[in-house]
Amino acid sequence: MSRELLSQRRLACPGTTALMQKDCSSTIARTSSAQTLDSLDCTRISDEPEKRYEERISILEFELRQANATVKTLREHLTLATSEADASQGVSSNCVPEEYVQMQIKPHEQRVLNFLVNEYLLKNDFKITSVTFSEEVRNQDFDDWADVGLNLARPPDLLSIYRHGFANLPQSKPETRDVNLQTHLFSSHSPTSGESTLSTDSFVLLNRLNAENASLLQRNQHLEEELRVIKAELEATFTAQQRDDSRSPLVIENCSSHPAAADVGRQNEEVSKIRQSFYKRLSNTLPPCWPVSSELGFEKLSFLTAFTGQTAATVEVIEVIGEILFSLIPKMSMRKRECILPLVAVVIIAHPKPKRREELCAMMFDLFKHPDAEQRQALVAVCTYIASKVDSTRVETEVLVHCVQRIDSRLLEQRTMAAEVVSALIPFISRPILSSLIISILRQMTLSNNAEKVLVPVIQACSRLCCFITVGEKFHVMNELFLTALSSTSSVVVDHARNAFLSSLAIWALEDFALLEKLVASLLCRMECIVDFLCKKSSKSGKEQQQLNIYFDCVGSIVPVLFWNVVRSNPAKDKNLEGLENNLNFQVPSECLLDDLTLYTCSSEMQRLMASFHRLIGEEWHSSWPMLDFFTCSVLTPLARLIRKVETGDRSVLRSAVHCFTRFGNFFGQGFVRNRLCPLFQVEQASIADKEDVEFTSLSLPVYTVAVLGSLIQKSDTERLKRFLKEAITTIAERNLPIRCIVLTLLEISGVHPEKQLIFDVMHACVAHPSWRVRRLSGAIMSALATEHNGRDVEVTISSLLLRLANDSSPDVRINTVVGLCCLASGCESDAQVSDYAKQELSKIFSDVPGTITDVCAAEMLEKIARIAPTFAIQFLDYLFLPQLYALTRRCLDARDETNATVFPALFDVYIALSCCCFSPATISGYFLPGLRVLVRELDARRAKVAQSIIIEQERKLFNFQTT
After folding, report:
1. Are residues 802 and 820 in contact, defined by beta-carbon separation less than 8 angstroms?
2. Which residues, including other chains, have CB under 8 Å from residue 858's CB and lie 6 or more apart?
3. Which of 319, 553, 623, 652 has the most C-beta neighbours closer than 10 Å?
4. Residue 898 reports pLDDT greater than 70
């Protein structure tokens, strides 16, 4: 089109081109002066091409504007013609509005609607939606109304169209009039026959609705009266049932007459009483499955549940409420949607149409995209309330199905909500679904590497599930889930698995001995794998040590179940034992859900069974029975064999192993410990001297000392323990074995044994032992005790023994007391005399280096000091230790002996350990820096470089002190 306009322009002006060509071809005559170089106008000549280019651009822009105007005019005519043709063909007198709406949309109509919709989105701050809409409609420019292509005026926005169009349409309301019978009306005022029929029908309908309304009001008052009476009766019944120990915990309160409660009751008949009693205690430790917030007023709306199965009008009310909810909830704020949950729950319960109920359940789960803890708790309460009012089939098909859809959601909050709802619905689901679908859901969520926030409710659901499953084949699956949870990196998940999940599995295993055997075997097998792995590795891994610690705790947790399994099957349970049970105290420390023995039977029955068991097991020669043999051979013997392989490295593992065996003694009694447990640690050993070295370096020593011998409280047993400890210390010293095991053993038994002077009685004998090796080990033990114990009596006893060893003739004995003396001199605040004595002995020992204390012994002493030097008090460092250390450094430098080569690196380690401490400026300038400068001359290049950096850092600190 632009080309056509240009050609027309040239035809209209034919002389312009020729004139331009003529001017360009003609030659202008120049004067002689103009032909010189000075008379040339260079500026005019250089501007001509630029002006010519600008003129060309102006012409093209003008032609382009004319072309756009022509195109716009043609589009307007074409659009108007198309719209008139469509209107004339599409609208006729016989066409109803519905048919007109259903006609295919025309292109110009679509452009108008697109423009108005985009304008509405922008005005109402739907900016993201507007951007998305603009990207989808790529062939239209929303910034210019002319792009629509209409030659009509711009229509108003959508809101104005709605208000002036649809909102002002006449509504099809029934017309009502007051009519009197036997009245002659003028024909001009009489209504038509259709209007008369409509008025009569409306009058009849109004009378019928008024009658139904009065009937419903009367029924509502009657139901309110009945509700008050029933609530009073239920409160009285609930109070009475709380006093009854035999009440089943699985019966849901306030709904005993409902079919859901009947289903739960029938399911409970298949579960043992022990599991029912355990579930009641388990529910007290887990998050509640019932509404805990008074704001969720279910009781205020519970009368709506009476509409189910009533007249058509009452059902219609529920349907209307359901329809209103679909339009009301999207308009509510996210923080306010929690308040409407009770109404949604009641409508779901009472709605007659399954499809609508399913849609309401879907809407209920979609209320919160990222539900927080309070919103999840409210949703769990609503789901539990619904489940308590309907049968298990509706729970599975209407509520549970939405949880299944969310177990793989990419949102963490949605997966957490699904796990919590599944956990709460377990008591209301049928057994076949529990044994199939629920197990599959929990297994999938456990194995899918979920976060801790999801795994915790999953483990809680598994704990509840074990109280309801009756299919023994599923025990293996649940046991695998438990072992998987134990291997989690989250300590919270491991604690829930060990406390709740394991307890539920153990209670389930009580019903079948084969299940209990599988549970114990799986735990011991995992422990053996971990121990074998630790034995093969040169460096001990903290993760494996932690896992072993967890499994020892698990075995200790199921001791009550093992005990009940043995006690209830003892052959003397039917004998008459009058007078014995009254003197028997079977109270044990309650540490887990299984420790309360009244969980398994009543108190009197447990008293009688335990009396018969302790009397039988206390006899030196007693008959055994299968359960006792299983416990001894399949539990205790593998554990005793296993702890002999574990070296005493991690103190937490030692404490867990000791605690596990201590629980055996607490439950099974001292007779069992003497006759069954003690022989396991002395198999085929004539005396302690004949035992292997592993017995004094592994967990066998602390377990046997603390958990076995330490649990016996008779005087003869205490003397036996003292003899064993003396022999153990002597054997370790003579064989030159590692001392960590015996040190940790004495530390543990000093903290748990009722006789506090037991350790010091043993150490008094060892301090006076003729062998210097035993005295040296005694010095190391007393130094370790000095770092652990507090209190004036203990410090006085330890100081007396250390002072005695510090004056020993053997240098090896003296240097082993240095650590303990430093601890007493630095941290003894209860007795100044003890601190002064310790400082005096330290000064003597330091002054003997070099001298009576050899360089090798001095290096060993300094290495021990370097490990604990940062823990010394500042006052002790300023006034005693650093001056003595500086003097020792000067003496070693003056001696210049070849053996001093072993002392200088040890001194360097002490200075490095002290470099992180804070000293006074006088100590830094008077002792620390001079000693380090003297020492740096005798060090190798690598150590000297480190020492120089420490000197620079201390000089900087000293400068800062002086400037401030």
Report:
1. yes
2. 815, 849, 850, 903, 906
3. 553
4. no
The distance of Cα 352 from the centroid of its chain, to the nearest Å, equals 40
Burial (CB < 10 A; 0-12, 13-18, 19+), residue 591, is: middle
- Tell me if 457 sits within 8 A of 419, measured CB to CB: yes
Task: Give the DSSP H/E element, type plus range, for residue 941.
Answer: helix 941-963
Instruction: Report the candidate in 461, 548, 531 with the shortest Cα–Cα distance to residue 496.
Output: 461
Contacts made by residues 97-103, CB under 8 angstroms, sequence distance 24+: none
Three-state SS at 38: coil
Task: Provide the sign of the torsion angle of the four alpha carbons 536, 538, 542, 548, taken in this order.
Answer: positive
Give CA separation, 828 vs 306, 790, 861, 872, 908, in Å: 77, 8, 21, 11, 27
What is the separation of C-alpha 667 from the centre of its chain, rounded to a whole number of angstroms?
34
Phi, psi of 933 (to 5 degrees): -65, -35
**Contact, 260 vs 305, CB < 8 A?**
no
- In which residue are the tokens 């452009």 written? 111
Preceding omega of 850 cis (within 30 degrees of 0): yes
Q: List the alpha helices (DSSP H) in 390-437.
A: 392-394, 401-404, 412-425, 431-433
Q: Which two tokens stand for residue 573?
A: 């349970």
The SS3 assignment for 40 reads coil
Ordered by start, the domain boundaries in the chain are 104-161, 260-501, 873-964
Query: Residue 542 has which token pair?
Result: 């903290």
Helix (H, G, I), strand (E, B) or coil at 19: helix
- Pair 407, 446: CB distance under 8 Å: no
pLDDT beyond 80 at 830: no
Please tell me the CATH code under which domain 260-501 is placed.
Answer: 1.25.10.10
* Whether pTM exceeds 0.85: no
From 404, 317, 402, select the one nearest 368 (Cα to Cα): 402
Euclidean distance between CA atoms 429 and 392, whole angstroms: 5
What is the tens place of the pLDDT at every residue in 462-498?
A: 999 999 998 889 999 999 999 999 999 999 999 999 9
Q: Letter for the amino acid at 8?
A: Q
Cβ partners under 8 Å of residue 650, min gap 6: 540, 542, 545, 549
How far is residue 714's CA from residue 717's CA, in Å, rounded to a whole number?
A: 5
pLDDT range class, residue 334, cuts 50, 70, 90: confident
Instruction: Report pLDDT for 438.
Output: 94
d(CA 378, CA 298) in angstroms, rounded, equals 12
Question: What residues does 698 pair with on adjacent strands?
Answer: 647
Half-sphere CA count of 612, side-chain side, radius 13 A: 19
What's the confidence (pLDDT) of residue 263? Answer: 47
